[in-house]
Each structure stands twice: as C-alpha cells, then as structure tokens.
Amino acid sequence: MFWRRFSGLLTAAVVASAAQHPLSVQPGVNLGTDRYDAGLFTPFGDLSALSTDEFTILSHPLFPNYNVRIKKSDFCDGTVGTYTGYIDIQARHLFFYFFESRSDPTKDDVVFWTNGGPGCSSSLGLLMELGPCRVTNPENSTFNPYSWNEKANIFFVDQPIGVGFSYAEYGETVSTTPEAAKDIAAFVAIFFEHFSQFKGRGFHMAGESYGGRYIPVFAAEVYDQNAKLVEAGLNPVNLSSVMIGNGCTDWASMVPSYYDMTCSPASVAPIMDISSCVRMKQAVPRCQKALQKSCVDKFDSFSCEAANLFCEAEISAPFFATGYNPYDISKPCDGPISDTLCYPVTKAIGAYLDRPEVRKQIGVDPSVNSNFSSCSDEVNAAFNAADDQMFPTQFYIGALLERGVRALIYVGANDWICNWVGNEHMLLDLEWTGQEAFVAEPLKEWSVDGSAAGLTRSAGPLTFATIYGAGHMVPYDKPAESLELTKRWLAGENL
C-alpha cells in the first residue's frame, strides 16, 4: 500500500531533491577491512540444521553491530523449509520470514520482498498476495498454489523499525529509505555468508507501492556493498534484478496521471463527472509547473509542500470524494479506508497474527505485545516529516540498469494511487543508455495460457508490463498471471 494521512485523506506524498538525503553511512555499520579477520568467522552451514525450539544467533565480524536470530518453523506452507526471526541491529529489530522454493531450493534464485506504505507490513504480501498461504479468516490459513515460492526461495521483511512485528527497545526509529537500506544490505550479506548453499544464486529485490522508493535504493546499497565484500575477501551478492509492482517512484510523473486514470478510459470508463474533470484538466498544468519549480529543479521544502497541497486539493481530493477504491478504480472502497485499506481481509490477517499460538510459532518477541497493525501511522508520519517521499528514486533505477542489473516494472491496470500511466511516463523519460531503444519499442500484448494478460514494452535489461484486471496488489487480483510473470522474469525469458 502507498498512503499518507493528510487532511483526513489517505493520499500519496511528494517528490524532492536528492540533495536533501545524502547517503551517509549509518553509525555502527562497519565495512572496513581493518577489523575483519576471516579466522574469526565460521559459517553456520545449512538451514536445515536450525532448531525449531529456539533461535540460533548468527553474526559476522564485518558487521559487528548486526546479529540475526533465526529458527525453523512449519508456519504457513508446511511443504517446504520455513524460517522466521529477527535482524538485530543493537536495540533495533526487524522481523522476517523465509520460505524455501517448492520447486528446487538447492538451485532456484532468492527473492527479497517488502511491502510499501511507508509503514506497511510485509505480512500483507505474505498472507494476502504472493506468499505460500493466504488468510481469509482469523482461524486458519490456506495453501496458495500461486505463491512465488513455486519457483524461488523468498524473504518477507517487516521494515523499517516499527512495522509489523519489528520493534526497538529504546524508541529508536528509521525515517529515510537510505537509512533502512543499510540494515537490509547488511542482513543480506550475513545470510549469504552463513548459508553457503545460496551463494552465487541470482538475488532479486522486489516490492510494491512505496517499494518503488525502497527497492531501487536497497538494491543500490547491496550493489555498492559488494565492492566492500570483495575487498574483504568475501563473495559478492549476485544481485540480478529489481522487481517493482505498482510503484510510486517519481511523484512528479505520477500526479498528472491521476487525471488520465479518472477522466479518460486509460483503464476503465471515466469515473469522474464532467465538471470535475474540466476543473482537473485546468489544474494539471499548474500542478506540474509548481512541482517542477519547487520540488524538482530546486527543492524548497515550504514551496514544494505548497505545490503538493494545491495538487492534492485540485487533483487527488476530488477522486477520494467519489468513494472509489484508490487501489482498484473498477469498484468502490470496501469499508473505511483508514480501517480496512478498502480490503476487509486485512482485518482477518491482523486477527490471525494476533493469535497467541501463531505468534509463538513464528517467534514474535514477547516485547511486541500490541495488536498487529497492517500499517504504522507513526512510521508513515516519520518518513513524511523527513520528506523521504520526495526523493528522485528513478535515478537509482537508471544507475542499476547501467550496471547490468535488470529491472521489471509491472503495474495492475486498475490501480489509481501508483498507476500504469505515471509509471510509463517515468520510464519513457528515464535517462540511461538504452532509453532510445526502450522508447522506440511499441506496447504489445503479452499472454498467459492463450489469453491476453496485459501490455508490455522491453529493451535490454528494462521491462515494463501492465496486468489487465488487476489493481494495486497484482498477486491478489491476478495470482496466475502474477506467478507466470515472475517465473518468466526469473528465467530471463521475454514476456
């Protein structure tokens, strides 16, 4: 989910200059070789040797302030190796799930998944979308035959601190994506060093919604950290691709597209009344000009926020007044968006994860004694206050492409909040050496089992795809198409 509390509405946030968020090294993260002695490290070995009754603590001398608590579990799938635990960064603790592949865990690639928000738990991705099981009522989970672990080993991580079952002991917080990236990159390195059966495997970093912000920065951190790992005599992580579903990556490209999605048949028939569309049409150029001047060309916090307020009032607010689902404009929101996120199943997931036996099974720390929350208002507010949403993250995608890291941008055609029109504009404008070839490619249909599944455009390492009939959460709405898309991408096949 991509959301922001403002003026009583849940809307997207705004963009700003990279100069506002220098990529400084987080205190306590040591990647220098001066303190690393290979003789001090013994890898744990194989995941199957882990205990089901208690956590095993993993560490690495190259990351002295990081530990990983991990245990075996029979949670959710039951047919594959399942593991849960915490990434411990001194007084900060990130919860994660890991599921081995149903196909061939000894050979299949590894996928990292995060939900968005900022502040929404990846338990939603696990139990509602692409995970090995789904929860539709608080009493139990059911097997999901369309899980991405049909062909991949996969992580689900509750990040940053304060999201889902993640917690901090003394009120520590993380409020920017570059800060969060340090923790994720360190965890990835420690995991691959301890469990050598995964070394060299293709590693794919995936996420949706605010994942359009998270994933490019996380992947860049993993890529840049590889140089330090090699310098220390370790194996680099085989970062193969990024996979961004319905991402909000460049706000300046996304805002004008809200008019297209509601007042033209870009997805469904126009849903706004004509007079509102006329007013929105007149506001779009003013909105674009204000965002470009105050948020992109030269960032000024006060002026940029004023521009965003104007855009929200004239372009976003009229949509929310309709009562339609911002994550799927083909239908109305089901329940108050602040309570259900338009999907009552999120309440069932929360009730399921609040069951004491479930928390004990997956090893939720006893200090996490509050009810499960799908999304954290506090984390969301902290990221908004830091202007994290204003970062031009598309530049990271371009930089990754230049370094041979593939990028898949897929979008459910019915999504409004992080829609396909805005994502396509962002990619067509993206500056990289393959831009001309990408722009020259026409959109064409791709199919699953002989039926048209959506539109796609591809050039070199970059692929863009839409999925017909899907909203913001593609694996939830179109599970078969989502799995086929993933399988083809992991195999390096054209759609």
Describe the structure concisely.
With 495 residues, the protein is of the alpha/beta class.
What does this structure look like?
β1 (5-6) and β2 (9-10) form a beta hairpin. Helix content is 35%, strand content 20%. With 495 residues, it is of the alpha/beta class. The chain has 2 domains: 11-251 and 390-490, Rossmann fold (3-Layer(aba) Sandwich), CATH 3.40.50.1820; 253-336, Helix Hairpins. Residues 5-30 have low confidence and may be disordered. It has 15 helices and 19 strands. α3 (211-231) crosses α11 and α5 packs antiparallel against α6. The chain is globular. The chain starts with a strand and ends in a 5-residue tail after the last helix. The strands form 4 sheets. Strands 3, 4, 5, 6, 7, 10, 11, 12, 13, 16, 17, 18 and 19 form a 13-stranded mixed beta sheet that branches. Strands 1-2 form a two-stranded antiparallel sheet.
